[in-house]
Amino acid sequence: MPPNAQTHPKKLLFALLIPLFMALVAVSVVNVALTPIGSSLGASSSQTQWVVSGYALAFGVPLVAAGRIGDATGRRRVFIIGIAFFTVGSLLSGLAPNAALLIAARILQGLGAGFLNPQTTGIIQQNFSGQSRARAYGMFGTTVALAVIVGPVLGGFLLKIFGDSLGWRMMFLLNVPIGLLGIILALRWIPADRAQLAATKDTATTASATPVRKRLDLDPVGMVSLAVATFALLLPFVQRTFTPASWVILAAGIVLVLFFVWWENRYKRAGKPPMLDMDLLKEPAFRNGILIVTLYFLGNTSVWLVIPIYVQSHLHGSALLAALIGVPSALLSAFAAPWAGKRVLAAGRRMMLVGFSFSMLAIASTLVLITWVDNGTLPVWTLAFPLSLLGIGGGLTISPNQTLTLKSMPPEVSGVAGAVMSLGQRMGTAVGTALIPSIMFGLVEAGYHWNIGFIAAFSAIFLMLAAGLFFTVMDRRREVREDARA
Q: Is 253:225 a contact under the CB 8 Å cutoff?
């Protein structure tokens, strides 16, 4: 069905994906600016680390709760609130006079990103169907893949153009006009959905023999327990240094997850609407899709952290050079994701099998070339050739997985369902970017050559992608069985 009588589908997607791209770029854009930020503000290394970690935590913690709030009260409104938080956080970040205020502003930025992110999938699910929905998720996948790589490139360019002291501030201030534009476009091009959601609930009430509670119930205990659990699970990884306290926090997070599952089941048995219906996880396509995307992001996003570290710290290349190595991958992803979106419903999980294969080939080819790059036989920029295959792999994996995983989800819970998938991405990214570089650093600090550390790190990435491929094969078998029964 079309988005509505007044909004063209392309305009609706543009209004959704520009803020999403802005929020995802903000995850990695500051990675190349931590040294200038430290020098400019007199910040310690732990403070500059929290410029990154604070955003990552604030992004991940509210995702599922924000999805539930959007589903229940109106997604456009929560989407606009998220953009507003992000924009104000960007302005305060760019003007921050010290590290403490910069960290606080980045947390506000992250909260905004966490609120707007799940509304994107919810609005797509509500306003598109069939092949048009698959194409929309193709553009969604392009946005995610480009954002992962564009962040460091954009950061490198801004530092080059404006210098260290102003360049890092421009990384934040550029978001202000984009955020204001995003709010205007959302008001003009995203359908107001509060009445639509209310009509859906009234229909469900009429069709069901079970009485439906009239008072809005957002399951506050479920929201708080999952938010705290997410914080506890993410914190040890975004800090990137494990201590005995980290293990205690991680264990507490696991206990809270178990409590959350128990509480949601109890809440539903009492006839109340849980924040996350555990029956959703009984749907094999949804459950497998979350696992697949978590493994993919656990491996793939680490590449774009390991490569800059290796190029800058070992080969003494510039931050801009390190970032530019990822440009061909981003461009290929921009073509592959929309192409995949047009064909994914016919191809099913087979398309993702090809995507994982391309990604694993990229990692294996880089492992072959790295010794020749290290000894000077090949220039460092030749790494861009094998790594460009990651763009094809991502285009054939991210958006197809989104489409196939959410295909079976009813529109009224699509915000929560999309939020759970986004949380899988955030978890995978947090664990991967903490674990994979630490493998390389650990070996280098133990006295091994940089190439040994690099090979070990990329081998770990290969294993993560192989695990993702394994579960994709398992889900493809389920898909074949279901098609045979149809």
A: no
Measuring CA to CA, which residue among 399, 403, 427, 418 is closest to residue 280? 418
Q: What is the pLDDT of residue 460?
A: 96
Phi first, then psi: what are they for 288, rounded to 5°? -65, -40
189 and 7 Cβ atoms separated by less than 8 Å: yes
pLDDT digits (tens, 9 = 90+) for 291-317: 999 999 998 888 988 888 898 889 988
DSSP 8-class letter at 29: G
Q: Are the C-beta atoms of 310 and 426 separated by less than 8 Å?
A: no
**Contact between residue 342 and residue 151 where contact means Cβ atoms under 8 Å apart:** no
Residue 183 makes CB contacts below 8 A (sequence gap 6+) with 80, 83, 84, 87
Using alpha carbons, list the distances in angstroms from residue 282 to 42, 277, 467: 51, 10, 21
**Residue 214: predicted pLDDT:** 54
Q: Integer distance in angstroms from the first to the last C-alpha of the chain?
A: 24
Average pLDDT over residues 236-246: 81
Structure tokens at 247: 């293990």
Q: Are 295 and 428 in contact (CB under 8 A)?
A: yes
Rounded distance between C-alpha atoms, residue 403 and residue 349, angstroms: 10
User: Amino acid identity of 309?
Assistant: I
Neighbouring C-alpha atoms within 13 Å toward the C-beta of 443: 16
Per-residue H/E/C for 178-220: HHHHHHHHHHHHCCCCHHHHHHHHHHHHHHCCCCCCCCCCCCH
Backbone Cα Rg of the chain: 22
Average pLDDT, rounded, for the chain: 88
What is the CB neighbour count within 10 angstroms for residue 198?
A: 12
| In contact, 186 and 3? CB cutoff 8 Å | no
Residue 207 class from Cβ within 10 Å (0-12 exposed, 13-18 middle, 19+ buried)? Answer: exposed
For residues 8-42, b (16+ Cβ closer than 10 Å) or e, as one string?
eeeebbebbbbbbbbbbbbbbbbbbbbebbbebbe
**Three-state secondary structure call for residue 74:** coil
Tokens representing 208 are 């069901």
- Report DSSP state, residue 383: G
Q: If you write DSSP's letter for every residue of 225-242 in order, what string do you get? A: HHHHHHHHHHHHHHH---
Q: The tokens of 180 are what?
A: 């204001």
Helix then strand then coil, % of the chain, to nearest 5: 85, 0, 15
Segment (H or E) for 2 = none
Question: Any idea what DSSP says for residue 274?
Answer: -
pLDDT band at 240 (very low <50, low <70, confident <90, very high): low
* Cα-based distances in Å from 86 to 60, 109, 288: 14, 4, 31
pTM of the model as a whole: 0.85
